[in-house]
Design a protein that fits this description.
Helix content of chain A: 25-40%
CATH class of chain A: Alpha Beta
CATH topology of chain A: Rossmann fold
Number of strands of chain A: 7
Distance between the termini of chain A: 43 Å
Strand content of chain A: 15-25%
Structural class of chain A: alpha/beta
CATH superfamily of chain A: P-loop containing nucleotide triphosphate hydrolases
Oligomer: homodimer
Number of helices of chain A: 8
Amino acid sequence: MTRTVPVVEQILSANDRIALQNRSEFDAAGLFAINLMASPGAGKTSLIMETVKALKDEFRLAAVDGDVATSIDSDKVAALGVPAVQINTGGACHLDAAMLQAALPELSLPELDLLVVENVGNLICPTGFRLGVHRSVLIASVPEGDDKPYKYPGMYQGVDAMLLNKMDVLSAFDFDMDYFRRGVEILNPGLTFFAVSCKTGEGLDAWLNWVRAEVAAFKGAAAGYEIR
Amino acid sequence: MTRTVPVVEQILSANDRIALQNRSEFDAAGLFAINLMASPGAGKTSLIMETVKALKDEFRLAAVDGDVATSIDSDKVAALGVPAVQINTGGACHLDAAMLQAALPELSLPELDLLVVENVGNLICPTGFRLGVHRSVLIASVPEGDDKPYKYPGMYQGVDAMLLNKMDVLSAFDFDMDYFRRGVEILNPGLTFFAVSCKTGEGLDAWLNWVRAEVAAFKGAAAGYEIR
């Protein structure tokens, strides 16, 4: 009698293999990691700064900032007194798992609870490269316009939560919130959504509570997360 | 006696070869072509619409709109009564010369004076792909922030003119105009610069006059343009 043993063969890209290695490092260290993506100027660094200010006494935080050039962002975050590593992509339009892997030795992972990775400002390319983190988050902003979910569907489909930033200037723009939310809902039904202003602080409590709950859930059981 | 004949061998990428073909088509048709690049939501389509409204009785205009998905932009432009062709890149983060070439048969080039190509909303990738046009133009916007030249130098270096849009909301943002302009000047000294609001019309006359002058100069002598 012949028995057939099912073999699940996973063909992984080189990037995905390294993403898995990053994930293993995070899980072994008990470190919850988020990939924060956005258009240029939507407020990634501002959100990281507000998050660090609010949570740095609760969690041991660090940030990795990806940029085409300069260390403007990581300098700002480091000024708040948490570890911040800059990745200069040298012109590349996204972070990939190898770039993140190369940055990790700069951080003492077992001494951290939460790592926020700020991707390069780009609504397209970062979606194609898993980093190995636990959650992907998008920050959009009112001035970008209400049609962005329709025009950049891949980004809106691939995230676990999103923020809409710069709510303080909503009235200065022709932004149809229903049209925007409808686009998000079509692409990513039930997506966790926060309307915020990093400038005024509006809405940030809900975001911070989400981060708290995510870190707590991860500390309870690190299994079951997609590779993001 | 041996004579040495200097051979200038140009190794062109496949994209550059097609860009040259596009350029030949434009020049043969007497058509001046612009590549308009920007971050998502900076105002590319708004600028094209304002330009079409203002100049469509002076010039025979058309637009090609590149987007990852949807025909939202080309529908808006077509509603103004000028030819508009949508290129859906199917997820790709930039236009390339072949995509533009594939769109050109949709237009009757000899019956046009000015073609505006709206690139995909992205401050990084479009800079790597010549389309074959005569001029590259960047439209930035106030809400993106004053640090963008420093963070996306390739984009700011590679253009022939730039606009800073959404000047109507300048006071609502912490935007240091001197810091921004200094960054632009370092990267692209003397760059033609227009501070505008596509919403209020502020500053658009200067932009429109630049377009008029560029088209007139091109009609005078089509030679001498870089391949953009």
